[in-house]
Amino acid sequence: MSLIITDECINCDVCEPECPNNAISQGEEIYEIDPNLCTQCVGHYDEPQCQQVCPVDCIPLDASNPETHDQLYQKYLVITGKA
Q1: Domain residue spans in the chain?
Q2: What are phi and psi of 3, to 5 degrees?
Q3: Which of 22, 39, 43, 67 could form a disulfide with 71 if both were Cys (CB 3.0 to 4.6 A apart)?
Q4: 4Fe-4S ferredoxin-type domain: from which residue to which, for each copy (predicted)?
């Protein structure tokens, strides 16, 4: 699954630079995650970096975008041009 940023986001700006896929961007009110680019850092790190740095714990899994680890890895390969 990709991740999602909830409305508990305080716009602290720490998650965006941590995303290796550039999936996080400033939305109208809070940061947003593009599910087409989010791989939960599979292929880059062992754990999602945005979740690690978020001070308010507002980045859960997005249940509306279910993906297996293998699907996330395949997406990583496409995004990075290694496919």
Answers
A1: 16-79
A2: -105, 165
A3: 67
A4: 1-29, 31-64
Dump pLDDT digits (tens) for 44-81: 999 999 999 999 999 999 999 999 999 999 999 999 99
- Can you tell me the distance from the alpha carbon of 16 to that of 70, in angstroms, rounded to the nearest whole number? 24
16-79: CATH number: 3.30.70.20
> What are the φ/ψ torsions at residue 74 (nearest 5 degrees)?
-65, -40
pLDDT beyond 90 at 40: yes
Q: Give me the amino acid identity at 22.
A: N
Closest CA to 68 of 80, 78, 60, 76: 76
Which residue in the block uniquely carries the two structure tokens 């290796």? Answer: 20
The SS3 of residue 78 is: helix
